[in-house]
Specification:
The chain is built from 17 helices and 14 strands. With about 475 residues, the chain is α/β, with parallel strands linked by helices. It has an eight-stranded mixed beta sheet, sandwiched between helices. The longest helix has 25 residues.
């Protein structure tokens, strides 16, 4: 009796034959027209289909709705990836867990893993220094997982939980009352907002609004100067003079669209895109089309970046920007630009949108003394970071106060909290974490602000740290 793969294989051949018969009749190729009924009855197929299918692996891919296109092994109907191996299992690569390998091949794979090659190459770069922005060597413990944070919160007694909530509310009332809304739509960015730029890059309105406000707040603070770059770009995309503009370092750059907007609307001379991952559809190609712009992409973790050792940036005034720097990446960026040993005298301005506070770690946090002086311990800090996830779980199409309060969740023992109460607490915790970062910047002598740069219905992650010397 035929198995499932054989049946699917026959069906695939049948429909491939049908498509080729149709193709031949439309193109008038002069091939004999084989009827589908005859093909089904005799099991015959046009020679081209038969030849093509014979050179393919017979493993059916349900998601792609086709057979694997890799050639099969000799004396087998399947390729090396899909052939059966007795007593062998797939395991995660210990160097890069984003992919898996057969356990029997692990030893040989570790010698040629692509990430290992990149790490070996990176270690030779002068700007690579392992853990330089991680927060010091005194904290050797591993990071605390979100599950561990959740378990710690749910293991609290009701009095402990109530005491922590009261502490959070009292701290927030004292230190977070000056966080203002600052939604800015700068004139310099109108060419992007109105889609007057004909770059072949994706346009998503909510991201463009955020990018424009990040740059607009930096301009309002006086760290970024507006010019007639936008008018020049509408006439000639390569004629803008950016020789007097500062360099730009975008942290957690991703595809680099924030820098693309800055270059189009304000003009820049040098660009350094810092990102540990590899992306497709990057803005790099359109940035390189600007004759006066020098671009360098640094594939490195922010934790390991020694900004002072980048030769092309030494002695050059620069802006540090970042959109949605997740969790501890914000702390590492601040330490990289402003911390001990950083060449902060060349930092003209900083504009960083924070994000994913639930990922923050005590060992990386930039201002531990801020929490300790408030009587908040390391364990309290991790509980606070976990509470922040409640803020983004809420419905942000309306104000938090209007959120459905009937959806109640049991937290610790007899304590119940509504959606609105949990969301409000989550936002308080996000405010407190970023307030500590804001105060740390002030301690280092920077003129700083912490603002909400877009409405929460555009993004609930709407905190922006801005600073200048």
């Amino acid at each position: 009796m035929p198995n499932t793969h054989q049946v699917l294989y026959t069906v695939q051949i049948f429909f491939s034959a049908a498509s080729l018969v149709q193709e031949g009749s439309e193109l008038g190729a002069g091939r004999p027209k084989v009827s589908l009924a005859a093909a089904a009855a005799t099991g015959g197929t046009p020679f081209r289909v038969q030849e093509r299918m014979a050179t393919r692996c017979k493993f059916w891919l349900p998601k792609k709705k086709r057979f694997c296109a890799i050639p099969p092994l000799s004396n087998s109907d399947f390729c090396g990836n899909h052939s059966k191996r007795s007593d062998d299992v797939w395991i995660l690569c210990s160097i890069d867990p984003s992919h898996s390998v057969l356990e029997s091949n692990l030893e040989s794979h570790l010698k040629r893993c692509p990430l290992l090659k990149h790490q070996n190459s990176l270690s030779l770069q002068p700007f690579y220094r392992k853990g330089i922005n991680g927060g010091g060597q005194e904290e050797e413990e591993e990071g605390v997982s979100s599950e561990s944070k959740r378990m710690a919160v749910h293991s609290m007694t009701a009095p402990q939980f109530i005491k922590l909530i009261e502490k959070i509310k009292s701290v927030h009332a004292v230190i977070c009352k000056d966080i203002l809304e600052s939604y800015i739509d700068p004139d310099a960015c109108k060419i992007w907002i109105n889609r007057a730029i004909d770059w072949k890059i994706p346009f998503q309105e909510k991201h463009v609004i955020q990018q424009a406000s990040i740059l607009g707040n930096l301009e309002k603070l006086g760290a970024l100067k507006s010019s007639n770059i936008g008018e020049q770009l509408q006439c000639d995309t390569s004629s803008a003079d950016s020789s007097d503009s500062p360099a730009v370092v975008e942290f957690g750059a991703g595809r680099g669209y924030l820098t693309q907007m800055l270059a189009d609307c304000y003009g820049v001379s040098k660009v350094f895109l810092v990102e540990r991952k590899s992306y497709k559809l990057k803005a790099d190609r359109s940035l390189r089309q600007k004759e006066s712009l020098i671009l360098e992409r640094l594939r490195i973790d922010i934790e390991d970046l020694n900004l002072n050792a980048i030769m092309a940036l030494q002695g050059v005034p620069y802006l540090a920007i970042g959109k949605h720097l997740c969790g501890p990446a914000t702390d590492m960026t601040l330490r990289c630009c402003v911390g001990e040993g950083a060449a902060k005298s060349y930092l003209r301005g900083l504009s960083i949108a924070t994000c994913c506070h639930h990922l923050c770690q005590w060992k990386h946090y930039i201002n531990k003394d801020f929490f300790l002086n408030l009587g908040i311990t390391k364990d309290d800090f991790h509980a606070i970071t976990w509470f922040t996830s409640w803020a983004v779980d809420a419905d942000h199409s309306s104000d938090v106060a209007d959120t459905n309060t009937e959806n109640v969740k049991n937290i610790c023992g007899d304590i119940n909290m509504s959606v609105a109460e949990r969301a409000a607490l989550g936002f308080m915790c996000k405010d407190i974490i970023d307030a500590g970062r804001f105060m740390w910047l002030r301690e280092y002598g920077l003129e700083s602000k912490l603002v909400k740069y877009v409405p929460s219905n555009i993004s609930p992650e709407n905190h922006l740290l801005i600073a200048k010397h």
